[in-house]
Amino acid sequence: MMNKILKGLMTLFSALAVQVSFAQQVKLSPNVKQAFETVKADEIKADIAYLADDKLQGRMPGTEGYQMAVDYVIGRLKLLKVIPAGENGTWLQTVRLRKATTQKGATATLTNAGDVTLTVGKNISITPNAELADVNVSGQLVFAGYGVSEPKLGYDDYAGIDVKGKVVLITRGAPDAFPSSVMAHVSNATTILKTATEHGAIGVIIALADTSGRFPGIANRPAYSVMDAKGKVSVSRSFYSMQVKLFGNLDSKTFGDLMKQEGKDLKDVLSLIKSGKTQSFDLKAGINAVYHSDYKDMLSYNIIGKITGSDPKLKNQYVVHSAHLDHLGFGVPVQGDSLYNGAHDNASGVASLLGIAKVYANMKVKPKRSILVVMVTGEEMGDLGSGYFAKYPTVPKASMIADVNTDMPTIIAPLLSITALGAEHSSLSKQVDQAAKYMGITVEPDPEPKQARFTRSDQYSFVVQGIPALHVKYGNKTADGKNNLADIVAPWRAKYYHKPQDDINGVFDFDAGKKYAQLNFLIGYLIAKDVKKPVWNKDDIFSTPAKK
């Protein structure tokens, strides 16, 4: 099996090798150079300061604070002569959000091999169902490794098993041979649910591989979805179709007990699938679950602006610059503060997009293609606003040729090197290399592959719709030559990331913010002026758009 995986990955690596060729020298006209320099560090700071101000109350979707952020961004875009490209000639796209919660009283029982009652919140968690309030589901359990089905890569956990009408038990991850971005994709909940649905499963349970027996305490954690006008799910990271009626997590002790019933050792099973040897089989046990979901619906909005291209034909194609406007609102107090301002995450990204729009506003001749500036809602709820826009855009979907996403650029040190998450899967790597070379920035592999950052922000929403996309993050290079920025970021992230301390009084390098905005502009500009559309690498796993 390992040989099959390596053979399946050869196409990806060979494509990467071709793209590592020296980037052509970028030449900008005097006017573009002048516009390029209109990005100002103090304006980046001012935008962050406003968006992360206490009065915006953490920009939680559906709140007055989020609406204040919407009004501010639209006001800034108007001054920059960006034109509205939302619904019905407005700046906005309505996003109907649903917060679903599994109520107390949910039950789960292992059947067939001697009934065993599982304690919800201790042994098992049950994700609420966004469409059906009351669920009673039963099915035979089938172990399906990682729940991965990627024949292109020579690996398929579903080969040789029948899961139709059954509940799939998996553990999260992927074989070690998978590249980090591919591993992040196949272990993403959306992909797991989609794959299980396509194979006929009616439930998916993700078992913890941690043999210490700890459980994450997610029994009553809410799940968010975007609903359509008829009350059906449009986009969700926790719901794929009504076919799958049970989605949850299982603790590692129960996982181990189930393996023992089959005469198998959990450590051995996990070791084998990690090495690329599939271990999929029917279990003696089945499961029955009964639960009720409560709902709270709210309205939120994406903001879409357009900068019209200069070519009569190509102006009908779009390069998207995206960033999420929302944050977490109020939450668990940390050091006496419960307001999550979201200065870095993601007021800094929105400020960067406003800087990009300013560059275009000062260009006399726009690039051939048009530019969409898209500020999305619900990223913190599971990339929901971007998921909805990428699936149901306010322009023809086929006209969107690329997305350059900006999320938490982590501007705490000079920007000397970057990693472009996702660019290795398409021809977008060419524009990344060109832009970085122009600005004297080194392009590096992802310094933190275990963070699965490729699937954790809005660019991923475009990728699963078949649109090449990338997300620029910091590399490891530092001014002192130690090249250990990831080590510096780690304690910073522990203190600030998704904490009330992420406000304007935290650690910032606004010159790095300026440079980051300029780099992302240049990547998007080079895509927009190239007569060739971006393409996926040959046989890349993302080259086929999502069916749903």
Describe this structure in words.
With 548 residues, the chain is α/β, with parallel strands linked by helices. It folds into two domains: 30-90 and 308-529, Aminopeptidase (3-Layer(aba) Sandwich); 99-296, Glucose Oxidase, domain 1. The protein has helices at 2-19, 30-36, 41-51, 64-79, 180-186, 189-198, 252-261, 266-274, 343-361, 384-391, 428-438, 459-463, 485-496, 510-529; strands spanning 83-84, 92-102, 107-111, 116-118, 124-126, 134-144, 149-150, 155-156, 167-171, 203-207, 223-227, 233-236, 246-250, 280-307, 318-324, 329-334, 337-340, 370-376, 400-405, 417-421, 442-443, 469-474. It has an 18-stranded mixed β-sheet that branches. Strands 7-8 form a two-stranded antiparallel ribbon. Strands 16-17 form a two-stranded antiparallel ribbon. Helix 3 (41-51) crosses helix 14 (510-529) and helix 9 packs across helix 14. The chain is globular and about 75 Å long. The model is unreliable at 11-22 (pLDDT under 50).
